[in-house]
Amino acid sequence: MTAKISWSDVEVGTELPGRTFPVTRATLVQYAGASGDFNPIHWNEKFAKEVGLPDVIAHGMFTMAEAIRVVTDWAGDPGAVVEYGVRFTKPVVVPNDDLGAVIEVGGKVAAKLDDNTVRVDLTATCAGQKVLGMSRAVVRLA
User: Fold this and answer.
1) How distant, in Å, are the alpha carbons of 59, 84, 88, 96 from that of 130?
2) What is the pLDDT of residues 102-140, one digit of tens each?
3) Which H/E stretch holds residue 31?
4) Exposed e or buried b for every residue in 63-81, given b needs 16+ CB within 10 A?
5) Angle, in degrees to the nearest 10, between helices 25-35 and 60-75
6) How far apart are CA 91 and CA 87, in angstroms?
7) Is 119 helix (H, G, I), strand (E, B) or coil?
8) Which helix (H) or strand (E) holds 65?
9) pTM of the predicted protein model
């Protein structure tokens, strides 16, 4: 499988379709099972507060994975991502209610590079606060 987006059809400033990702406590339990990360800050409210957090928080790698979905959905091939990195700026706090939290992600082509690649800069927020900084992916296009 290869990217469905053509390098020649993309310009600097091209916006990727944004997405929202709901996160509940059940989501965190499922992710813990899949990843093997059972740190109690991700499921135990009492423990999270004892270590100075406002409440249970989403796994950083979960947040990072949800954000890159904007790029993989746009490119049409997860294998098109050749580089990806972020800085964690704020935790995604997940309250114990029926709503949980919502991660909002958008992206924009920031640079056209050599070898049919582009750099996509992502923005990821939750409750109006930036949760990922320096979120960038290099993507090889068709």
Assistant:
1) 15, 18, 9, 21
2) 999 999 999 999 999 999 999 999 999 999 999 999 999
3) helix 25-35
4) bbebbbebbbebbebeebb
5) 90
6) 11
7) strand
8) helix 60-75
9) 0.94
